[in-house]
Specification:
Organism: Lacticaseibacillus manihotivorans DSM 13343 = JCM 12514
Strand order of the largest sheet: 9-8-7-10-11-12-15
CATH class of the largest domain: Alpha Beta
Subunit structure: Homodimer.
Number of strands: 16
Bound molecules: nicotinamide-adenine-dinucleotide, (2S)-2-hydroxybutanedioic acid, manganese (II) ion
Protein name: Malolactic enzyme
Radius of gyration: 24 Å
InterPro entries: Aminoacid_DH-like_N_sf, Malic_enzyme_CS, Malic_N_dom, Malic_N_dom_sf, Malic_NAD-bd, Malic_OxRdtase, Malolactic_enz, NAD(P)-bd_dom_sf
CATH topology of the largest domain: Rossmann fold
Family: Belongs to the malic enzymes family.
């Protein structure tokens, strides 16, 4: 394609703004189209950061960063890379929840995303092709936004989660932003607030389910695979009724990943391994309870269960360590409403004298005395003081992970968990949490958010040109996060800190890529895994432009 000077200035993949050199200004006809001073990238970063800091709240900060992203990708990612822990809660969860809820009202521009409608399926191919605009797409994040974080159905507004997750891929793992595509599948919405909102930008009808929905997803997947044959396809925030089915349908055919099921499974397993490093206990001795057994809750249980098997436990014995609690209480095998993923761990009523009374978390904790309690229920404040104290009365170092996002939905606050258990609880939270000072010890709180692993997992899988994302690769990712935190330090976190996200994303990528090659899943011949991973990484630095001008 040939560029005009105006197109160059408005293409965020190529634009350098005030950093265009004099030679470039001469070559591309930019003289007089920019202020005359020529800045370095570091001057631009300094200036942008000062603007960022002048914004009053995280939403304003995020809007400013999005404006920067829309204008100049190198500048945006350079700034992000220099402030990764500070920017994560602004670019990503929890602030992203606010921009999703207000997406239509705040709409400025489409951010190179693809908006596919269930009512216009003939457009799927041309829309994907034109969004890619000749770029070599290797990573696509798609959502249908039925289950955005814990805030529910946000229709086309959920596109922001695809955009945001991709930003984290680049900031954390160095995925080239010109090789990614965010996609929203607009199958309607059951969110009445959106349907009644004049400004709502999506399809104004109820969400479509059943055959028509599945045909839509299938057509999208087939088209994306055809257009981008080396694709890593990441599914995000689909509803409970579809997420696991879609994963099961494609996982043995294409390189695909469900973040809520698999990514969350990895980070929670890694967090448990970290916690057990601190407590010096054995994984297979732990009694595990999940509160909220939906997409994430059941996905995590499945990953942790696999670990018990890997550690040598027989399936029937391992199953006895798992208890799922959902809306109806402890899940029993005579319940006709169980999802397939829940059925695997459902218990028999005959195991309990008071089975019919186990209809709440409190009753289940009293009856079962779990060692591990993971919250993916979307129900804020449900890990109450009495439940937590009851749990702590029966286990030396309770592992408690309230993971529901965003902040307003968390099952508990880290600070309370530390206090209620007299510093014994090993805690990780879904959103970032400040360290907790208690009795002279500073407790660092790990962030059990899939963002700590999905970037490295994707980088490793893509770099290895793996045909599939296998269970072994997933397990390798979970195990690779060990050894970064010193478990002997008082108050040590169960997971590595977000300040090191870029470093350990590479560790995860290497572990995953090595596993893929070891299992012979690589399409290309890969002699040097480390080189393959490094070669795949993009750095936010201005490069000479290799473009043709229109006149
Ligand atoms: N930290 C992370 O990395 C991470 C990853 C994925 C999901 N999550 C969070 O987990 C939560 C759930 O996400 P999901 O994708 O599994 O959603 P989901 O809708 O698939 O599952 C939620 C489950 O909670 C159950 N539930 C609702 N009310 C309940 C109640 N009163 N008591 C017990 N259970 C109840 C639902 O029946 C459902 O099974 C969200 O808040 C999400 O942000 C966190
Ligand atoms: O998006 C997040 O913060 C994590 C997770 O994928 C979620 O759905 O909550
Ligand atoms: Mn999610």
């Amino acid at each position: 394609m040939k560029y005009t000077a105006q197109q160059l200035l408005h293409d965020p993949f190529l634009n350098k703004g005030t950093a265009f050199t004099q030679a470039e200004r001469d070559a591309y006809g930019l003289n007089g189209l920019l202020p005359s001073a020529i800045q370095s990238l570091s001057q631009q970063v300094k200036q942008a950061y000062a603007q960022y800091e002048s914004k009053n709240d995280n939403l304003q900060k995020r809007l400013f960063l999005m404006q920067l992203f829309n204008t100049n990708h190198v500048l945006y990612y350079k700034l992000f890379s220099e402030h990764i822990a500070e920017f994560m809660p602004v670019v990503y969860d929890p602030t992203i929840a606010d921009t999703i809820e207000n997406y239509s009202a705040l709409f400025v521009e489409p951010q190179n995303a693809t908006y596919l409608s269930i009512d216009a399926q003939d457009d799927i191919e041309s829309a994907l092709r034109r969004s890619a605009n000749g770029r070599d797409i290797r990573l696509l994040v798609v959502t249908d936004a039925e289950g955005i974080l814990g805030i529910g159905d946000w229709g086309t507004q959920g596109v922001d989660i695809a955009v945001g997750k991709l930003m984290v891929y680049t900031a954390a793992a160095g995925i080239d932003p010109s090789q990614v595509l965010p996609v929203v599948l607009d199958a309607g919405t059951n969110n009445q607030e959106l349907l009644n909102d004049d400004l709502y930008l999506g399809n104004r009808h109820e969400r479509v389910y059943g055959d028509k929905y599945h045909a839509f997803v299938d057509k999208f997947v087939a088209t994306a695979e055809k257009l981008f044959p080396r694709l890593y396809l990441h599914f995000e925030d689909f509803g409970r009724a579809n997420a696991a089915d879609i994963l099961d349908q494609y996982k043995n055919q294409i390189t695909t990943f469900n973040d809520d099921i698999q990514g969350t499974g990895i980070i929670v397993l890694a967090g448990m391994l970290g916690a057990l490093n601190i407590s010096k206990q054995k994984m297979t001795d732990q009694v595990y309870m999940s509160f909220g057994a939906g997409t994430a809750g059941a996905g995590i249980a499945a990953r942790v269960y696999e670990e018990y098997l890997q550690q040598g436990m027989a399936p029937e014995d391992a199953k006895k360590h798992f208890y799922l609690v959902d809306k109806q209480g402890l899940l029993f095998d005579d319940d006709p409403t169980l999802t397939p993923a829940q059925k695997v761990f459902a218990r028999s009523r005959s195991e309990f004298e008071n089975a019919n009374e186990l209809t709440s978390l409190e009753a289940a904790v009293k009856a079962i005395h779990p060692d591990v309690l993971v919250g993916t229920s979307t129900q804020p404040g449900t890990f109450t003081e009495s439940i937590v104290k009851e749990m702590a009365a029966h286990t030396e170092r309770p592992i408690i992970f309230p993971l529901s996002n965003p902040t307003k939905l968390a099952e508990a606050k880290a600070e309370d968990l530390i206090k209620w258990t007299d510093g014994k609880a090993l805690v990780a939270t879904g959103i970032p949490a400040a360290p907790v000072e208690y009795n002279g010890v500073t407790y660092e709180i790990g962030q059990a958010n899939n963002a700590l692993v999905y970037p490295g997992l994707g980088l490793g899988t893509i770099a290895a040109t793996s045909k599939l994302l296998s269970d072994d690769m997933i397990s390798a990712a979970a195990h690779s996060l060990g050894g970064i935190v010193d478990p002997e330090l008082a108050g040590a976190a169960v997971l590595p800190p977000v300040t090191k996200l870029d470093q350990f994303s590479k560790t995860v990528a290497l572990a995953v890529a090595n596993q893929a090659v070891k299992d012979g899943l690589n399409v290309d011949d890969i002699k040097d895994v480390e080189k393959a991973v490094s070669d795949m990484q993009w750095a936010p630095e201005y490069q000479p432009l290799n473009i043709e001008m229109a006149d």
